[in-house]
Amino acid sequence: MRPALPRSRRPPQRRLPPPSPTHPPVFLPPAPGSVTTRTTSLVSVPHASFALRFSDLLDIEAACAEAEEQRAVRTIDWIGARINKRCAKWTDDTDSHRSPWWDELRRCIEGDHVPSKTEGWNHPVALILAVSTTAPNPLQAVAALHSRVLELPPWVDTNILRYTLIIHPENSPLSNDEAGALFNAVKKQYGLHSYLLPLSLPTPPPPPVPVPALIPRLPPPPPSQEPRNLPLPPIPQTPGFPPDSSGLHTIRLTEKDIQQTARFTREFLFTSTRRLPSRLFSSTRRLFGSPSPSPSPSHNMSSSLSSLPLKAAMNASGQGSVSPPSQQRRLAEFATILGDLKLAVTVWEALRKDGKGGSDMLPLLLSPSPTLSLHASNALSGMQLEVSEPLPHEQLTALKYAVRWEAGINTSDFLKYPVEGERWLVWAAGNSEEPPAALLLARAALLSSQKQSKRRAALWYLSAANRLEKCGISLSPSFWESEGQPPLETYGIDAIMSNIEHSLGINGDLTLVFSVFDSLSGRLLYTTGDVAGAVRFFLGLLRGSTGNPSRTSSSPSTGNDGENKLPYTDKVYLDDFRVAYAHFKETSPESKQLNDLKLPFTFCITQQTQLRLAGDMQDRASGVWESREESWKSFSKSLGRTEGLSASGKASVNEVFWVDLVLRNPLNTEINLSNVTVTVQECSAQDLSSPTSFVEVEVINDIVLGAKELRTVPISIQSSRATSLVVTHATYDFLSLLSSAEPLTSRGRRLHDTVAQRLQPTYAPDVTIKVEIEDSDQKLLVDFVGDEQLVLAQGERKELKLWLSNSGGRPIKEIWIAAGSEDEIWLGQDEDSDGTGKAESRSRVRADISEGITASTEVIQSRNSLESRKPSCIPLELDPGESVEYPIQLHAEAIGSQELNLLLVYRESEKDRFRSARVTRYYSVFKLLDVSTSSRPYQTEDHLFLVQLELSSCMKSLDIHLRQITCMSPTWLCRSLVEHELGVLAPLQSSHLVFGLRPWGRGFAAHETFKFVSSKLRDVLHGQPVESSDPPPVDLLCSYIAETRRSISRPSTLDLVSQSKRGVVTRGLAQSHPHIPRESYSRIFPLYHPESVDFIVFWGIPSQQRSGYITVSGLSLGAGHAALGPIIEEAENAKVKRSMYAETQREKEEVLDAIRNSEWNAEMNPAVLVVQEPTVTHHDFSFGFVFLSLLKTFLIFSRPSGHVVPRLQ
Questions:
Q1: Which of 1135, 1065, 1093 is closest to 973 using CA atoms?
Q2: Which distant-in-sequence residues (6+ apart) come within 8 Å of 280 by Cβ?
Q3: Of 264, 204, 252, the residue nearest 25 (C-alpha)
Q4: Among residues 1068, 1070, 1059, 1034, which one has the least CA distance to residue 1109?
Q5: Which long-range contacts (CB under 8 A, 24 or more apart) does 605-609 make?
Q6: How many whole angstroms separate alpha carbon 1093 and alpha carbon 969?
């Protein structure tokens, strides 16, 4: 038998009183003790008890008309008034087993009967229309009640059952037969949901009969006054149930009338064939979809504020109409009421995942687990309970959640780990200073004391008493007597703060609020003269606030961070320590009593503290410079050089470097550290404590760290001689009082090399911060000229200048520069700046004029290699003290924040080892053009394919000048099909260019390229290493469409275009062939696919003196015939046991599928038949038939024999 839900989660019934006011309201007795309901799947579920709540419809209509915020304010004030009136009796009650203040708070919350916009618990499910036979026309009164329109807001679910109750007293003018006829007429006209209730109702009334007291309910608002300006409202008495002189609630009905009323209750709910469980609680067809068989107004059930989080629902309440709760939420609520917990949990979980509530109900339905705290925290997370003055409706909602959790979860489960539900009450209380929040804290304290967590309980009792006192609710006089304080003093609770904030321990039981805090405290030590003991005690109190950030008492905590503390706990402890220690140093400056005093926590994070040399960025990317050095070493080895590269990470004499200290404040309050510095020693020194006078270390006077703040603090260091240094400690003065030192060594990595190391935990030597200081006889300083923010357009070509200076004592005669594979740079000046404009001798140019548009073609030979760029030599020699500026050309095409990391290696002669210098330039690139291409076969003899190039400007206010479009392809000749004017592209405008493509006579290298790729991929499929060889060179046909022709064959342009193409191809291969190592791409794939088509769009913005080009790649045109089919079939039939490219069978299949779907294995229909329309022929078929000739053209797209055009007639 499942436990009963809280009363606030029971289905409510509404009652419309009879028109005649001569009879008192009908008392409906409770349902029988054992109740069985049926779930949506018609499964019977027994209940220990099942309470239904009845309300007056007129009261509900009036309450729904009140503003939600105003009602929340009145509810909180009303609860506070009831508590204030009864607190004097409660505080004098010595029964420790009772908590009447909590019972009163829970009854007030459970008495809420007004429908809510965000949940459907208080929405009506049935309406009883009561009519007395003493009315002049009872049938007309019934008709009037049924025709009455419910004056409820649109967010109230009015899809309810209507039940007609006819009350027939003995003094009625109608006889029993006439009353029976009236009952039959009502059943015939309004359905079987009707009942005839005969009552005697004698005059004078019979003696009173005691009945259970009703749950208190918020009185209606005054008609014309604001709630906050009113005096505290009196406690209302329920009409018809007045308490007698003894204070008991009674009803004046005869025993027969009570039995008749009980019979009606059973008939209405349980026993008759027209019982509600089968029609209301067990059948969801009417409630969640199909129309009701009983007369009820139609209602829109499409959307609901319950589908929104609480905060959004509150904000939406004043914006137009609001729909009733959603069907899904209503299903969850009714499944919960009926006991179908499996369905209820499923639907509540679905609502929670969609962000539509449900977290407040799941703790009531799930078994105890750590997830319950997460659900409770999530239910309260949408409310701003941490602010000093939370919104009233959020306070009331949190209060409802807390009361329901405490009442609906078994006490033993609610208190034990991992639920710890008393913390939920503290979260719900937040920072509100209203009486209900104070009682939540008091309840949490009482539950904690039952767990023997008396220190935590006392802290929450203190906060509860403080808040109650602020609300004008005084504590018991016996409490003040126990504390030795007069109760009428204005300072109130603050007078005893010093005796309860820092308790050393708790002994005894909780009899009064703070009677357990009669032990010694830190302040007691201080006031009695034991200042040193007080200092140690206060510092020890801060020990518990280390570790993970702790939450305040008003914040839901889902972690295991220890006990929740009030927000000011750390601050109070810290202030006490500061005062006590300052007093000790002032009064006992020579005392050695606290010489061994150490902080119980640390500020430095040694694993993140690191060394930073000149030229290194503070947030340097890991692995960037290592890859640059590896690139240089590989290049140097390929040249046959034996000289190595000096190890990086060294500083020069008189050069400043830094130690980046990472400091984290473990306390939940602001602190300051003074004289922050590091201790530096020579590695060769036997005594690490010996001074190093030749080293200058920066000392930071003062640093202020906020609560839980994490900050990086750089400490500069400079050495005047060559040596090896080690940074051993970080030192500081805590609060400018206590000198502290923290070691900067961290434990080495765990070793797993031998069996003994794996069995017994063994670690490598401790990791220390070391730095080598070398002589500055040869030192190259490098930087970019200008430190302004560099913002480039997409594809812009920008000239940057490197500043090189020899700061050493020896000349530098050899300088190399190594860049990344994605960096598109050219060393030297642009050809246009020197006026040469010379093209390479290997280029051949042929001009072609078509329809007045200048179009030219140019053949450029390419190595066709994907090999990444190699380091380049800068033709400079620098004498000591000499400086020079050297230009480099940067092409920026990648969008977003970018960085250019250059490694410069240098030396004096061939016998010297190379040294390195680093330089970084940050820049950002904004989008300029949206470029897209599309292609399709073109059914003409002159052009086999048609390509459309669409350019869309992304600029909102600048014109873009299109200066040239170049098409590069090993196979295809590009011609413009329509006249284009490459002029100005206005802001946010588009330009469509159409080109025709046909093969050109120099496409003979395609066969050799396919043969090369096929042989390499065969080795890949068989798991064999690929031999290092270059692909066949290729001739690229460049077709120009330009106003002023700019040749691609210029050295800088050709090199930058090749770098851009290399980057595009490499990124594409990394996505399509992830199992092939990146370093193997250049040995397998060429730079240009034989049938590829690339466009280069040259642009300019004269108003900003910007120019550049954008490359458009990805087109591959021509009829492929699955050139890799034989090697794929061979690989599928071969039994390869091991492969250097794939370890598992799944990876082998992925490698095979990637090659099968690659552009090198593409297929296309190679032939297209084109039928030309004949000329119009006139013929009279009366003279017979006639022969006509049709010209049919076959277009062959196959390679490699060229363009074949057979014709048939």
A1: 1093
A2: 125, 126, 161, 287
A3: 252
A4: 1059
A5: 605/662, 605/663, 605/664, 606/742, 606/743, 606/744, 606/745, 606/746, 607/746, 608/662, 609/659, 609/660, 609/661, 609/662, 609/730, 609/744, 609/769
A6: 5
Instruction: Give the CA diameter of the chain.
Output: 138
Q: What pLDDT band is residue 831 in, cutting at 50, 70 and 90?
A: low
C-alpha 948/C-alpha 950 separation (Å) is 6
Who's near 107: CB < 8 A, 6+ residues apart?
Answer: 215, 216
Of 201-205, 721-725, 909-913, the range with the highest mean pLDDT is 721-725
Range of 7-21, 383-397, 796-810, 1044-1058 with top mean pLDDT: 796-810
Sort 163 into a burial class: Cβ within 10 Å, 0-12 / 13-18 / 19+: buried
Residues 646, 915 contacting (CB under 8 angstroms): yes
On the question of pLDDT at 63 being above 80, the answer is yes
Q: Smallest Cα–Cα separation from 776: which of 810, 746, 750?
A: 810
Determine which helix (DSSP H) or strand (DSSP E) holds 268, and give its type and residue range.
helix 255-269
Position 532: which residue type?
A
Q: What is the DSSP string of 1113-1135?
A: EEEE-S--B-TTHHHHHHHHHS-
Q: Strand, helix or coil at 83? A: helix
Strand-strand pairing, 780-784 and 796-806: antiparallel
**pTM confidence score:** 0.54
Q: Is the pLDDT of residue 144 over 70?
A: yes
Residue type, 649: G
What's the mean pLDDT in 52-67? 83
Q: What is the pLDDT of residues 1126-1173, one digit of tens each?
A: 888 888 887 766 667 777 788 888 888 888 888 888 877 666 666 666
CA dist., res. 523 & res. 1010, Å (int) = 88
Written as one string, the DSSP assignment of 934-987 is EEEE--SSS-SEEEEEEEEE--SS--EEEEEEEEEESSEEEEESS-----EE-T
Rounded Cα distance, 396 and 279, in Å:
34
How would you class 358 by CB atoms within 10 Å of its CB: exposed for 0-12, middle for 13-18, buried for 19 or more?
Answer: buried
Task: Give the C-alpha separation, 263 to 1024, whole Å.
Answer: 91
- Residues paired with 645 in a beta bridge: 914
Alpha carbon of 978 to those of 52, 263, 699, 992: distances in Å?
82, 94, 73, 10
Cα 572 to Cα 292: distance, rounded to the nearest angstrom: 64
Percent of the residues in the chain that have a pLDDT greater than 90, as a whole number? 12
- Cα(1034)–Cα(1088) distance, integer angstroms: 8
* Inter-residue contact 659 to 679 (CB < 8 Å): no
Q: Which residues are CB-neighbours of 81 under 8 A, at least 6 positions away?
A: 232, 233, 235
**Exposure string for 1134-1152, b = 16+ CB within 10 A, e = fewer:** eeeeebebbeeeeebebbb
Which pLDDT band, with edges at 50, 70 and 90, does 40 fall under?
confident
Nearest to 916 by CA among 1017, 839, 814: 814
Beta bridge partners of 733: 674, 739
Q: How many CA atoms lie within 13 A of 66 on its CB side?
A: 25
281 DSSP 8-state letter = I
Mean pLDDT, residues 894-916 taken together:
87
Find tokens 């000329």 and name the residue.
1175
Q: State the pLDDT at residue 353.
A: 85
What's the whole-number average pLDDT of the chain? 76
CB-neighbour burial class of residue 804 (10 A; exposed 0-12, middle 13-18, buried 19+): buried
Check residues 186 and 939 and name the one with the higher pLDDT: 186
Q: What are phi and psi of 639, to 5 degrees?
A: -85, 0
The tens digit of pLDDT for each residue in 483-513 reads 444 544 434 444 444 444 443 333 333 333 3
Region 600-615: mean pLDDT is: 86
Q: In terms of Cα–Cα distance, which of 1017, 692, 1080 is closest to 867?
A: 1080
Distance, CA of 27 to CA of 214 (rounded, Å): 11
